[in-house]
Automatic annotation (TrEMBL):
Swiss-Prot/TrEMBL keywords: 4Fe-4S, ATP-binding, Cytoplasm, Iron, Iron-sulfur, Kinase, Membrane, Metal-binding, Nucleotide-binding, Phosphoprotein, Transferase, Transmembrane, Transmembrane helix, Two-component regulatory system
Localization per Swiss-Prot or TrEMBL: Cytoplasm
Keyword Cell membrane attributed: no
Protein name as it appears in the record: Oxygen sensor histidine kinase NreB
Known function: Member of the two-component regulatory system NreB/NreC involved in the control of dissimilatory nitrate/nitrite reduction in response to oxygen. NreB functions as a direct oxygen sensor histidine kinase which is autophosphorylated, in the absence of oxygen, probably at the conserved histidine residue, and transfers its phosphate group probably to a conserved aspartate residue of NreC. NreB/NreC activates the expression of the nitrate (narGHJI) and nitrite (nir) reductase operons, as well as the putative nitrate transporter gene narT.
Top class in the EC scheme: transferase
Cofactors named for this entry: [4Fe-4S] cluster
Taxonomic superkingdom: Bacteria
PROSITE patterns: HIS_KIN
GO molecular function: 4 iron, 4 sulfur cluster binding; ATP binding; metal ion binding; phosphorelay sensor kinase activity; protein dimerization activity
Transmembrane portions of the chain: 6-30
Lineage per the UniProt record: Bacteria, Pseudomonadati, Bacteroidota, Sphingobacteriia, Sphingobacteriales
GO CC list: cytoplasm; membrane
Main localization, broad class: cytoplasm
Length: 259
């Protein structure tokens, strides 16, 4: 017959061997949860940091555009104004033909002043604040169509005139400028179509062309223009899809939470 002390020791040892794995499992679970929480917090901090960095970069770009726009409006505009005043002060009494040329120069200079001031507003984004995104896009298209190289169609959901965000509108405007600039530089297109629609808290933007297209998966096809486009879309928590193939044109579709 076993002694009570030995039986108790055996029982205690058995209980420890049974409980120890359970404690080990609990410890592993708690440790894994803490580790995952730390990883999630680190990832969240990284996302916040990247968003702030993108915001700062875009703010610097916007400040540069503001400076260029102000210089166009103030300095070059002033010089042209002075030129116009100088030409207007010339008194020609006999040579009628010279007078016509001077008057023509004054008229052209005045038109240059008006065009430069308007261009300055577009670059600064002032047009968006004053007249809205639709008007600013129309003015941008008018500038492009003066080259007689493109036929541009703009489709704009009227709902966007009432559901609006000035801050996002400026980024969207710059986004469209970048997309169109890529088409002008690389696509050899004749027709460009821009569409903005709104549905259930999301803005859907598409920019398409009938140009030479490209293979989106081919290395070296994501230049600085597309890099800037992806940056702006990430800043807006949006999504982008690029459909293109050689000789078939390109369509860029973007979805953004809005307003």
């Amino acid at each position: 017959m076993e002694k009570p002390g030995i039986s108790f020791l055996i029982l205690l040892t058995t209980v420890i061997f049974l409980i120890a794995p359970a404690f080990l499992v609990v410890y592993v679970i708690v440790y894994s949860r803490k580790k995952k929480k730390l990883q999630d917090e680190k990832a969240e901090m990284q996302l916040v940091y990247e968003a702030e960095l993108l915001n700062s970069q875009l703010a610097m770009q916007e400040q540069t555009m503001q400076t260029i726009g102000a210089d166009l409006h103030d300095h070059i505009g002033q010089l042209l104004s002075l030129t116009s005043l100088t030409l207007g002060s010339i008194e020609i009494r006999d040579d009628h033909r010279s007078a016509e040329k001077v008057n023509s120069a004054i008229e052209i200079t005045s038109k240059c002043i008006a065009e430069l001031r308007h261009l300055g507003k577009l670059i600064q984004g002032q047009q968006i604040t004053e007249e809205g995104l639709y008007s600013a896009l129309q003015q941008e298209i008018a500038w492009l169509e003066k080259t007689d190289r493109f036929r541009i169609r703009l489709s704009f959901d009227e709902v966007l005139n009432s559901v609006t965000s000035e801050e996002k509108n400026l980024i969207i405007y710059r986004l469209i400028q970048e997309l169109v600039n890529n088409i002008v530089k690389h696509a050899a297109a004749k027709e460009i179509e821009i569409s903005l629609t709104y549905n259930e808290g999301r803005l859907h933007l598409s920019v398409s062309d009938d140009g030479k297209g490209f293979d989106p998966e081919k290395p070296g096809k994501k230049g600085m223009g597309m890099f800037n486009i992806h940056k702006r879309i990430r800043l807006l928590n949006g999504q982008v899809k690029i459909n293109s193939s050689p000789d078939e044109g390109t369509k860029v579709s973007i979805t953004i939470p809005y307003p």
